[in-house]
Amino acid sequence: MLCGSSSFYHETERSCVFCPSSCSSCKNPFECVDCKPGFGKNADPSVPKLCGRCALGQYLSVDECKPCLSNCEYCNNPFTCSTCKDPFKLSAVGQCVHSCGAYSFYDESERRCEPCPSNCLKCDGGGVCQSCAAGMKITERGECEKCPAG
């Protein structure tokens, strides 16, 4: 007997039975062939052949949940993180790092490394410049401006 795409033939019941709600097609109630959009296989290791929402530290790739980079809390692909596990900080290129690099500071509210203002070599957590590039001086507002001629 042929069944619709979201159901399978159940031998015991001798009828078509719906697949689990996260499967677009299945072989039986415990094995999805394809997942519905937004769901992936391997989301729950205890039921690896069923589809589910990807867990923390995983991203959805086609219809399979795959691990993020080791220090990622959330990611959308295998190369970049969108948030990091504590105590790591998210760099401007989506990597989780121990500390922000030169010419950047950690923005607590955004939970990511942000660039220091223009011509600033070092800035504090609020983006206020602490040292400027050669030929520049710090203003009262903590910004860098050209030194007066002379």
Your description of this structure?
It is a single chain. The protein is mainly β. It starts with 6 loop residues before the first strand and ends with a strand. Among the domains are: 1-54, no CATH class; 116-150, no CATH class. A hairpin with a 5-residue loop joins strand 15 (120-123) and strand 16 (129-132). It contains no helices and 18 strands.
List the helices and strands and how they pair.
Elements: E1 7-10, E2 15-18, E3 23-28, E4 31-35, E5 40-41, E6 51-52, E7 58-61, E8 64-67, E9 72-75, E10 81-84, E11 89-90, E12 96-97, E13 104-107, E14 112-115, E15 120-123, E16 129-132, E17 136-138, E18 144-146
Antiparallel strand pairs: 1-2, 3-4, 5-6, 7-8, 9-10, 11-12, 13-14, 15-16, 17-18
Short recap of the structure:
The chain has about 150 residues and is mostly beta strands. It has strands at about 5-10, 15-20, 25-30, 30-35, 40, 50, 60, 65, 70-75, 80-85, 90, 95, 105, 110-115, 120-125, 130, 135-140, 145.
